[in-house]
Amino acid sequence: MQTVSNDPSSIPKPPAAPAPEPGQPQASPAPAPVQQGLGLGLWLRDLLISAVASVLIITFLYQPVRVEGTSMLPRLEDRDRLFINKFVYHLSAIEHGDVVVFRYPRDPEKSYIKRVIALPGDRLRVDHGQVWINGKRIIEPYVPKEYQDTRSYAEMVVPEGSYFMMGDHRSISSDSREFGPVERSLIYGKAVFVYWPTRDAGVVR
To answer: Which of 28, 111, 114, 190 is catalytic?
Structure first.
C-alpha cells in the first residue's frame, strides 16, 4: 500500500534553473497583478466627495433662483436662472450698486431682486428720474435711456439698518419708491452669476 507523507522534506524538489551565461541579461521578476476594481473604487469615492461638497455649497453658500418679471431689464430677463451668494454679506458690507435678493417687506413669503441705490445714512432724492445721493447726481450705466422714467421722490435720509432699492427698468419697477427702504434682516443674498439660458450667462453687475 502506498502512503502519502505530510513531511515537506519528502516531497521531491524541482531542479534549479540553470545559471545565466556571462553577458546574458537576467529576466526581470513578473510584475505584481493589478488589483481589480481599485480604479472604480477611487472614482466612486471622488464622486461621493464631489456630491457632498456640491450640497454643502448650495446649502450654505450659493443658491439657484429664477427671475420672475422684467423690472431688472436689460441685465436680468424674465425666467433667467442665476446663482445668489448667501454668505458674502457675512464677510463684507452691502455696497452701492449691488444686485440683491430680499424678502418683500409687505409679504415676506415673496422675494424681490433689485439694485442697492442708497445705504444707511445716505441722503437720497429722485428728481424726474435722476437719482441724487448726498448731494451728488449718480451715473447709472445699468439703466438704458429707454428704461428711464420721470418719477420723483422726495428727499429722505435712509434709516440705519435699511437700504433703498430700485429696479433697472425704472418705468415699470415696483421698488423702494413704493414700499420704502428695506431692512437689512430681509436681505439674504447677492446675485452673482446667470447660468441659464446660455445667451444671458455671465456675471451680474
So the answer is: 114
In a domain, 90, yes or no: yes
Nearest C-alpha neighbor of 186 from the set 163, 167, 166:
163
Answer whether residue 73 is part of any domain.
yes
Element (H, E) at 83: strand 81-85
Q: How far is CA 129 from CA 88, 108, 140, 151, in A?
A: 31, 28, 11, 5
71 is catalytic: yes
Distance in angstroms (rounded) separating the CA atoms of residues 198 and 154: 41
Question: pTM here?
Answer: 0.74
Number of domains composing the chain: 1
Q: Which range, of 1-15, 134-148, 155-169, averages the lowest pLDDT?
A: 1-15
Cell representation of residue 104: 418683500
Q: Please, what is the Cα angle at 162 between 93 and 154, to 5 degrees?
A: 125
84-143 pLDDT, tens digit per residue, is 999 999 999 999 999 999 999 999 999 999 999 999 999 999 999 999 999 999 999 999
Q: Which one of 5, 10, 71, 173 is the catalytic residue?
A: 71
